[in-house]
Design goal:
This protein is an alpha/beta fold. It is built from eleven helices and 21 strands. The radius of gyration is 22 Å and the shape is globular. It has a domain at 7-79 and 103-186 and 280-358: FAD/NAD(P)-binding domain. The strands form four sheets. The protein has an eight-stranded mixed sheet with strand order 7-6-15-16-17-14-18-21, sandwiched between helices. Strands 9-3-2-13-20-19 form a six-stranded mixed sheet, covered by helices on one side. It has a four-stranded mixed sheet with strand order 1-12-11-10. Helix 8 (308-329) packs antiparallel against helix 9 (333-355). The structure holds flavin-adenine dinucleotide.
Length: 406
C-alpha cells in the first residue's frame, strides 16, 4: 500500500475499474439491483474511439434489461440478412436472421459504434444516488484483505485507497489489475491484421442487392462489408508483415479492393481508415478472492463475427446478477460459478467460434452453400452467431442462470 494515501471506506459497495462497455454495463446492472457502486476510470472521459460495432440479439436482450434499448435501436442500423458472394458466381447464400424469431425478441443484429452506447449506460448510472463515477482515477493495485478489497487509485490529486466488498476489473486487454494479481493472459497473435476503410458511398452501386453484412470472396481473398448507420465499413485482412504505412497508401488499398471487387475502378470516398492487429488470449483465472475480472481483461480474440465485446457484456450481466445475489442473500453459488462458467465459455465457445471462418476459403464457402439449403442448419448456425446458446439466461431482472450450460 502507498504511504501517505487518503482512505475512503464504504464496505458494502462494489468497485468497478474501467468505464468501457463492460464496466458500465456491470455498474448499471448492480445499481439497478440496489447495490452501491463506484466506477473508477483512468481517462478524463469516455473513449470515443471506433471499435466494436456489432450488437448480437443476445446482447440486445441485455441492453433491454439495462434500460437503454430504445435509444440503441433508434440510433443503430438493423441487420436482418447476412450474404455471401463470390466474384465469379455473385450471391451464393443469404441467411435471414428472421429465422431467430422463436429464440429472441430481437431477431436481428444491430450495428452501432460502441462509443454511442457507453454514454447511454453512463446516463442510466447517473439515475442512481448510490452510484458514483470518477474520471481520471486509475486503479494501480487491488488487494484482498479483511473480507473486502482495497483498491489503490492514482489521480491528479495524488493517490488514495478505496474499499469495497468486491472489485470488478473491467480495465481492458492491458488490465493492470490482472497483472498485479499475477494472472496469466496467455495466447498468441494472429498472423493477419485488419485494415478498415469507412466510406459514405452507397456500395450497392458496385454490388446491387447487397445485404447489410456481406462477405465477398475471390479464391482465397475475401472482404467483409458492414453497413453502419452513416457509412459502410470495408474490412480487408492483410499479413502482419505489411507495414501500416504501405497498407494505408491509396494505390495499395485500391489494389487489394480490386482483387475481390474488380468493378472498383477507384477508391470510394473515405471518411476514415485504420489498421489494427489482434490476438487470442484467455486469462488463466477470472477471479482472485473478491476481485472478479470481466470483458477484455479476461478474453480477447479476432473481430470475425463481432463476438468479443458481446461476450464481455454477457460477463458483465452474469457477474452483476451473481454479485447482487451474494450481497443481498448471502448465497455465493452464482458468484462461485461465474469464474468457472465464463472461463469455459471463452475457451470452449468464444475462441473456436471466432476462429472457425479463419482458414481455407473454399471449404468454408462449400459449408456456407450447403447450410443455406438446410433451414434447420441455418437456424442453428445463426443461433450460435447470435451467441444465444452461450448467453446468460433468462434475461429478466436479477436473473443469472446456468440454463445455457446445461
Ligand atoms: C478496432 C477494434 C474493432 C473491434 N470490433 C469489434 C466488433 O466488431 N465486435 C466485438 O464484439 N468486439 C470488437 N472489438 C473488441 C471490443 O472493442 C472490446 O471487446 C470491448 O471494448 C471490451 O470492452 P471492455 O469494457 O472490456 O474494455 P475497454 O473497452 O478496453 O474498456 C476498458 C476501460 O478501462 C479503462 N482503464 C484501463 N485501465 C484502467 C485502470 N487501471 N483503472 C481504471 N480504468 C482503466 C480504459 O480507459 C477503458 O475506458 C474491437 C476492438 C477494436 C480495437
Amino acid at each position: 500500500m502507498h504511504s501517505g494515501t487518503r482512505q475512503t471506506d464504504m464496505a458494502n459497495r462494489v468497485i468497478v475499474a474501467g468505464a468501457g462497455p463492460v464496466g458500465l454495463a456491470a455498474a448499471v446492472a448492480l445499481a439497478d439491483r440496489g447495490v452501491p457502486v463506484l466506477v473508477l476510470e483512468k481517462r478524463g472521459r469516455l473513449t470515443a474511439a471506433s471499435k466494436a460495432s456489432t450488437f448480437h440479439p443476445s446482447t440486445l436482450e441485455i441492453l433491454d434489461a439495462l434500460g437503454v434499448i430504445a435509444p440503441v435501436l433508434a440510433a443503430g442500423q438493423r441487420i436482418d440478412r447476412i450474404q455471401y458472394r463470390t466474384d465469379a458466381a455473385g450471391i451464393i447464400a443469404e441467411y435471414d436472421l428472421g429465422l431467430l424469431a422463436n429464440e429472441t425478441r430481437y431477431p436481428f443484429r444491430l450495428h452501432l459504434e460502441q462509443s454511442r452506447v457507453t454514454p447511454l449506460l453512463l446516463d442510466r448510472l447517473a439515475e442512481h444516488d448510490h452510484a458514483e463515477i470518477r474520471f481520471g482515477a486509475e486503479v494501480v493495485d487491488a488487494v484482498n484483505e479483511d473480507g473486502g478489497v482495497t483498491a489503490v487509485v492514482a489521480g491528479p490529486a495524488g493517490s488514495e485507497t478505496v474499499r469495497g466488498l468486491y472489485l470488478i476489473a473491467a480495465d481492458g486487454a492491458r488490465s493492470a489489475i490482472r497483472d498485479r494479481l499475477g494472472i496469466a493472459f496467455d495466447g498468441s497473435a494472429y498472423s493477419t491484421k485488419v485494415l478498415r476503410l469507412m466510406t459514405d458511398m452507397d456500395l450497392e452501386a458496385w454490388l446491387p442487392g447487397l445485404a447489410p453484412v456481406t462477405y465477398v470472396f475471390n479464391g482465397e481473398k475475401s472482404i467483409s462489408l458492414l453497413r453502419m448507420p452513416d457509412c459502410w465499413r470495408i474490412i480487408i485482412r492483410l499479413p502482419v508483415s505489411v507495414p501500416d504505412e504501405e497498407a494505408l497508401k491509396p494505390e495499395w488499398m485500391l489494389a487489394r479492393l480490386r482483387e475481390v471487387l474488380p468493378m472498383a475502378e477507384r477508391l470510394p470516398p473515405l471518411i476514415n481508415t485504420d489498421i489494427y492487429s489482434a490476438s487470442k488470449r484467455v486469462a488463466a483465472r477470472y477471479r482472485d478472492g473478491g476481485v472478479f475480472l470481466a470483458g477484455d481483461s479476461v478474453h480477447v480474440t479476432n473481430t470475425r463475427g463481432g463476438m468479443n465485446m458481446n461476450c464481455g457484456l454477457h460477463d458483465a450481466w452474469y457477474l452483476a446478477g451473481a454479485m447482487a445475489e451474494a450481497i443481498q442473500t448471502g448465497d455465493l453459488n452464482a458468484l462461485d460459478a461465474y469464474a468457472e462458467e465464463r472461463h469455459r465459455i471463452a475457451t470452449d465457445f468464444l475462441i473456436p467460434r471466432t476462429d472457425r471462418s479463419v482458414g481455407d476459403a473454399t471449404t468454408w464457402l462449400e459449408t456456407v452453400r450447403m447450410r443455406a439449403a438446410d433451414p434447420e442448419a441455418t437456424r442453428a448456425f445463426l443461433v450460435e452467431g447470435a451467441m444465444l446458446d452461450i448467453a446468460p439466461r433468462p434475461f429478466g431482472a436479477g436473473a443469472t442462470s446456468r440454463e445455457a450450460m446445461q
